[in-house]
Amino acid sequence: MAKERYLKGDAMPFAKQMKRLINSKDFSDIKFIVGDSRKQIRAHRCILASRCEVFRAMFADQNNKEDTPYVMSDVDPDVFLTVLEFIYTNCVALSTKNAFEVLSCSIEYGLDDLRKVCVAFLMDSLSVSSCCEVLQSAVSYGQEDLKAKALAFIDKNTQSVIKTKGFQELSAEAVCCTLQSSKLTADEPDIIAAVREWAAANSQTLTRQPMQKVIQSVVRHIRLALLAPDELKQLERENEAQQIIPVTAIAAAWKFHALHESELGNPQTQLRQGTISRPSHRGLHHWDM
Predict the structure, then answer these.
(1) What is the per-residue pLDDT across 81-103, written as a single tens digit (0 to 9) for each?
(2) Is there a contact between 15 and 91 (Cβ–Cβ < 8 Å)?
(3) Which of 16, 41, 94, 195 has the fewest CB atoms lying closer than 10 Å?
(4) Do the Cβ atoms of 122 and 114 come closer than 8 Å?
(5) Is the pLDDT assigned to residue 289 strictly greater than 50?
(6) Residue 105, Cα to own-chain centre: how many angstroms?
């Protein structure tokens, strides 16, 4: 009996041929009305159902006639075509402009291979200008590997990153993830200034809530004990006008300066990698301890 072998042909010609079927009238049996522009996109039911369980479940609805289009109003037509390209060819053209939305669609449609490709692309394209958007996507979509990669990049480039518009557009959860790190390469006064600007931007344009409420969940990750006594006094005077930092947090910092006793495991008394040395730091733990 002859032994059977499984051999692979050249995948690229196949992918190119399959790509011609995307949004083609040839043998298409399903239509989508996509995005606010209501662009009509044609597809092939059997291909989509065989590659995507979400589409398979969608098409299982026998009440939907073949000539009745599916309305996909919450996705951009170009992004939808990019997703179809991956479904048809197992290849995809990603850019820093579409990768975030394609990642969102890959998760929504359960296309795990496409999700992995998007995550790898975003990891490889991290930059000072893009890392905050990458972090926000990772937090929003629960992509832990991508979040760790983005946070590691921010650790190394903190001083530049906290000055970007992207930092000001982060959610409170994403800012908290950033501030929890002891490897941030910025001094605490600079971090505090960036958090103030973030809170002001969110208060005025994004959440339209008072700064005190916007900053409430974030301020507990600021390490006031790292400030010198004169810096802490200045912060206290500035805080009298806006009251954005809890008095209890300031009192805890003064307590450290009085006793120079830090609590093991308490991040508030742990130096960051970028902390500039001050005489008042006696008793504080270094970031790598």
Answers:
(1) 999 999 999 999 999 999 999 99
(2) yes
(3) 16
(4) no
(5) no
(6) 15
CA distances from 192 to 51, 123, 223, 245, 266 (A): 49, 28, 9, 10, 19
Written as six digits, the tokens of 262 are 């830090």
Give the dihedral of Cα atoms 203, 208, 210, 212; nearest 10 deg: -50
pTM for the predicted model, two decimal places = 0.89
Query: How many percent of the chain have pLDDT more than 90?
Result: 69
Q: CB-based contacts of 140: which residues, under 8 Å, 6+ apart? A: 171
**Cross-strand bridge partners of residue 72:** 34
Q: What is the pLDDT of residues 178-222, one digit of tens each?
A: 999 999 999 999 999 999 999 988 887 755 677 888 888 899 999
Do residues 284 and 226 make contact, with C-beta atoms less than 8 angstroms apart? Answer: yes
* CA–CA gap between residue 230 and residue 233 (Å, rounded): 5
